[in-house]
Amino acid sequence: MTTVIDRLSQARQLIGNDRTDIPTPALILDLPKVERNLAEMARRMAPLPARLRPHAKIHKSPALGRMQLDAGAIGLTTATVWEAAVMADAGLDNLLIANQVVGPVKAAELARIAGLATVTAAVDSAASVAELSAAASQAGTEIGVIVEVDVGLHRSGVRSAGAAVALGRQATDAPGLAMRGLLGYEGHCMLEPDRALRIEKARASNAILVGAADDFAAAGLCTDIVAGGGLGTWDITGANPRITELHAGSYIFSDAFHRNLVPGFEPALTVLATIISQSGATAVLDCGRKAIGIDRTPPEVVGGAGSVRFEHNEYFIHEEHIVLDLPSVSALAVGDRVELMPGYSPTTVNFYDVYFVARDGVIIDVWPVCARYGSATVGVGPAAP
Ligand SMILES: Cc1ncc(COP(=O)(O)O)c(C=O)c1O
């Protein structure tokens, strides 16, 4: 049986190949573009009051997390305890899970990694506070918590400042927990293409979070962390003097969706595909919705060598195929390679075991994608390369 470790070592045999000369579909990470995106975000954040704690769900890679810390991030945000665990096991510190960690196995894993790193998780219920408190007490570690407040997304989060204070008091008094502050993620604003409307909506959301922080402070509760934000609101939430940290993450790769939302970051992640069939102006790729994230925006062919066909009111993207319209004059033929910029990078990454890391057109390394659902790497924590 081939294991994830076997696949990693098989992939490593392709180091030195041209970036277009590996079996497809494959995930290619253009390292110089990532380096420039990290520098660009550090430059943009420098004058703002909020510090950057980038969301690592976008890449699921301790190696890339390390690069973000080296570029000045105060720590990393994750979506799952498993992502936080691979970061902690790789020696990275100051981890924040911007999500509820619920269930005995996950709570125990959170308590374990709290013995390796400073770890903070979001809570929004008394049951969750009690479960994390019991897990930390059992493990003899201290889990940091922040109370999540619903600031308009209507996903997780307590629904009022009063409920936040009540939960904050409970968490402050709970053994094994360290109360650290508040989270209010304005995710509904990220999708707003109208910049003026996005600013208006984000400011309204930020005001709900800051209001809860005021009530926290008045009640004598800790407000060391007042967190929110994503790439779409980086310069709105990040400019609020009361918000201590920003959780933007998609700047690291960008993609067809984020490139239009927040220009200035280079699309650093591509999926390499092969043309497996071609007739006239129609080309078919060996890459479909099981190999590339298409949330919100379709993939784009890098260099404009074709475009994803749109017919019958939808993009022609099947599980294992994408159909392209080729320009009237095209040299592309069966066997040729094309690179696609994903519509959405975070879901694209989750399809793959490894990144093929490229510099100057050559594969220079292979890095694991960690903590994918259903993957053997969940909870195992391979070391950063
Ligand atoms: C809780 C939370 N914080 C922050 C983000 C920011 O991510 P991005 O940089 O992709 O906007 C997300 C994205 O879904 C999120 O769910």
Q: How far apart are the termini?
A: 24 Å
Number of strands: 19
**Ligand list:** pyridoxal-5'-phosphate
Query: Can you give the mean pLDDT?
Result: 94
Main sheet characteristics: 9 strands, mixed
Q: Could you estimate the helical fraction of the residues in percent?
A: 25-40%
What's the tally of helices? Answer: 12
Unreliable sequence segments = 379-385
Global morphology: globular
Based on secondary structure, the structural category is alpha/beta
Amount of beta strand? 15-25%
Report the C-alpha radius of gyration, rounded: 22 Å
Brief account:
The chain is of the alpha/beta class. It contains 12 helices and 19 strands.
Layout of SSEs?
Blueprint: H1 4-12, E1 26-30, H2 31-45, E2 51-52, H3 62-70, E3 76-78, H4 81-89, E4 95-100, H5 104-113, E5 119-123, H6 126-139, E6 143-148, H7 161-173, E7 177-183, H8 187-190, H9 195-218, E8 225-228, H10 234-237, E9 245-246, H11 256-261, E10 269-279, E11 282-285, E12 300-301, E13 307-308, E14 310-311, E15 314-315, E16 322-325, E17 337-341, H12 345-349, E18 354-359, E19 362-368
Parallel strand pairs: 1-18, 2-9, 3-4, 4-5, 5-6, 6-7, 7-8, 8-9
Antiparallel strand pairs: 1-10, 10-11, 10-17, 11-16, 12-17, 13-16, 14-15, 18-19
Helix pairs in contact: 4-5, 5-6, 7-9
The structure holds pyridoxal-5'-phosphate (PLP).
The site of pyridoxal-5'-phosphate has 13 residues, from α8.
